[in-house]
Amino acid sequence: MTDPSVKADSDISGKPTSVSRTTLSHIMTLNDTNLLGTVHGGVIMKLVDDAAGAVAGRHSEGPAVTASMDEMAFLEPVRVGDLVHVQAQVNWTGRTSMEIGVRVIAERWNESTPATHVGSAYLVFTAVDADGRPRRLPPVLPETDRDRRRYQEAQIRRTHRLARRQEILELRERRSADGFDD
């Protein structure tokens, strides 16, 4: 018997990539720095998760939770006084989960120099209902060649995530059978 509260796939319309795309901006202060005087990576990761969460909530039209963060790359240091822009969009959707791509750029607040790409990350979010159980979400509809490329790359990352998880589970099972405890 089908649960009437769960929409069938045909009842959920897709959403274009641009509908939930967002940018969050924040000026970095002394409170954001680490012992080296640059902005702490955790501060950047929090901004990344905030932007991705906003996109996930918009796309899924409700609550969504962070399931994983992949490939957080810090490319350049961020300094006090930098204006950081965190740009996020849905790259791919499955039945209940979605990959959000995030690009972090920084620019000096008081200079007209070009902005610098300082970081990138990919996060997986799961849409959840009021009880915290996964729920269906609308498919993403890539609009541009760049969106289609990002969609295809996200599928590759998903395949790798699933394969890695399966290999780890198999290794643990073999080790357990051999009498090793993890």
Account of the 3D structure:
- The strands form two sheets. A five-stranded antiparallel sheet has the order 2-4-5-6-3. Strands 1-7 form a two-stranded parallel ribbon.
- The chain has one domain (12-142): Thiol Ester Dehydrase, Chain A (Roll).
- It is 31% helix and 31% strand.
- It is α+β, with helices and mostly antiparallel strands and 182 residues long.
- The chain starts with 14 loop residues before the first strand and ends in a 5-residue tail after the last helix.
- It contains three helices and seven strands.
- It has helices at residues 17-20, 41-60, 145-177; strands spanning 15-16, 22-27, 64-74, 82-93, 97-108, 116-127, 140-141.
- A hairpin with a 3-residue loop joins strand 4 and strand 5.
Q: What general form does the structure show?
A: globular
Mean pLDDT over the full residue set = 91
Helix content percent band: 25-40%
State the secondary-structure class: alpha+beta
Key words describing this protein structure:
single chain; 182 residues; Thiol Ester Dehydrase, Chain A; 5-stranded antiparallel sheet; two-stranded parallel ribbon; 3 helices; 7 strands; disordered N terminus
How is the topology of this model organized?
Elements: E1 15-16, H1 17-20, E2 22-27, H2 41-60, E3 64-74, E4 82-93, E5 97-108, E6 116-127, E7 140-141, H3 145-177
